[in-house]
Amino acid sequence: MTARSNSIISLLLHMYEYATFVGTSLKAGIKKPFYFKEIITQLYRLGYKSLAIVSLTSIFAGMVMTLQIGSELGRFGAKLYIGSIVSIALVRELGPVLTALVVAGRVGSGIAAELGSMQVTDQVDALRVMAVDPYKILVNTRIIALVIMLPILVAYADILGILGGMVIANTNFNIDWMIYWTTTIDALLLNDCISGLFKPVVFALIIGTLACYVGINTTGGTKGVGNSTTFAVVLSSIFIFLTDFLLTKLFFILSGV
Q1: Which of 69, 72, 194, 248 is deepest in the core (most CB within 10 A)?
Q2: CA 137 to mean position of chain CA atoms
């Protein structure tokens, strides 16, 4: 067999194993016990502790985008539409994608490293010996926490980004606060909000399942943990961009655009 054939077979094998992993995780998720205390712990670790980096990212994204858009619209005397464009761009695309990438870098890498370390030190096997399902306590709790917290973080990031844009619009382009806010609210439709909050749910599933899958399947000691951490972030980022395009296309089709 050629090297190309071996690569294709290896890719298909990994896809099958990943699909099996996701199916096993979902099946385990509907069985008792549900480890609510562990879920709350993960909500704090994965969500609350991400607020600082999400805040910085969203505020500066809104400020930079307002500078860029404002300078261009000013050439056509259309500076009053800054709020409309910034809000739509943030809610539809930049808010969900940037926040998901930040969470993938911080949370996805952490999950892969933590589970990878547990795997290479036989702690996962120890849980099985104690009749504890590792899929429930290690995988499901983290995925559930991400699915809950990522949409909340995205909504939080959208608001901060819009407020950051408001500051730049007022100080650099002399746009009144109320005018900016009014044009922002008028521009956003229900479909925009639904799209902007549905995407992070899908992104959370991608980040959570990929990070847990890579972590649980780590081999090669400490070097393998490092490789798994990098691989989880890279793979999550690629799938976030790919899924964002597909979801955006789907929402446009559904809205008749």
Answers
A1: 69
A2: 21
Looking at residue 108, the DSSP 8-state letter turns out to be I
Widest Cα–Cα separation across the chain:
70
In this structure, are residues 68 and 52 in contact, taking their beta carbons and an 8 Å threshold? Answer: no
Q: Which conformational region is residue 133 in: left (phi greater than 0), alpha (psi within -120 to 50 degrees), or beta?
A: beta
Determine the angle formed by the axes of helices 95-103 and 141-173, rounding to 10 degrees.
130
Cα 74 from Cα 114, distance rounded (Å)? 50
Element (H, E) at 241: helix 221-254
pLDDT digits (tens, 9 = 90+) for 89-125: 999 999 999 999 999 999 999 999 999 999 888 888 8
Q: What is the spatial distance between Cα 108 and Cα 95, in angstroms, rounded to a whole number?
A: 18
DSSP assignment of 111-159: HHHHHHHHHHTTHHHHHHHTT--HIIIIIIHHHHHHHHHHHHHHHHHHH
Q: Which two tokens stand for residue 42?
A: 């993960």
Closest by Cα among 36, 27, 18, 24 to 137: 36
pLDDT tens digits for range 127-183:
888 888 888 888 999 999 999 999 999 999 999 999 999 999 988 888 888 888 898
C-alpha torsion angle, residues 119, 122, 128, 129 (rounded to 10): 180
